Amino acid sequence: MFYRPEDGHGLPHNPFNAIVSPRPIGWISTRGTQGDNLAPYSFFNAVAYVPPQVMFASTSAKDDREGTKDSVAQIRESGVFAVNIVEYAARDVMNASSAAKPAGVDEFEISGAVKAECETIDCPRVAGAPATLECKLTQIVQLPGEANFAVFGEVTGVHMRDDCLRDGRFDVTTFSPLARLGYRDYCQVESLFELQRPDD
Questions:
Q1: Is the pLDDT of residue 85 over 90?
Q2: How many H-runs (helices) and E-runs (strands) does the chain carry?
Q3: How confident is the model at residue 105 (pLDDT cuts 50, 70, 90)?
Q4: What pTM was computed for the model?
Q5: 13-188: what fold?
Q6: Closest alpha carbon to 24 in 40, 44, 46, 39
Q7: What gap in Å lies between CA 147 and CA 156, rounded to an integer?
């Protein structure tokens, strides 16, 4: 099968996000003039080592946020955000925080996520997350499409849960990261293997 996106795929469900998978989930926490916010984004990744940088993309809008969603609107205000890593055990809490609520509703409260304060930025984070990246905004890029924004940030602080460190490594098998597949499907990382590069 081949299709051009502008012509449509003719399938019952869009295959695009199932093709690009699995995708890590950035559980983005923010603070703005209307309060604290927490929301998951599966268009998320690390993009540079030095200085460490990450990005996430928001692809829809709410009527009360002028063409975007709460996370992007609050990052525009504050210039900071935190990326909380989602473990399999937190899947239901993460999912509850994805509900579309009016601006000003605190998803920490409605989802049951426990809130803690960041160290280098004025922003909440998910207490007990396997890791949290505190970030200062570097740029917001408007992408083609009505409500598509890519948010880039430089990491200014890193929280790691002590039980996730083994032999000097951040060991993802200690908490099973949750990843997004296509449609309503998710997966968890349960095992890993190493490959050595030819030039190592």
A1: yes
A2: 4, 14
A3: very high
A4: 0.95
A5: Pnp Oxidase; Chain A (2.30.110)
A6: 44
A7: 28
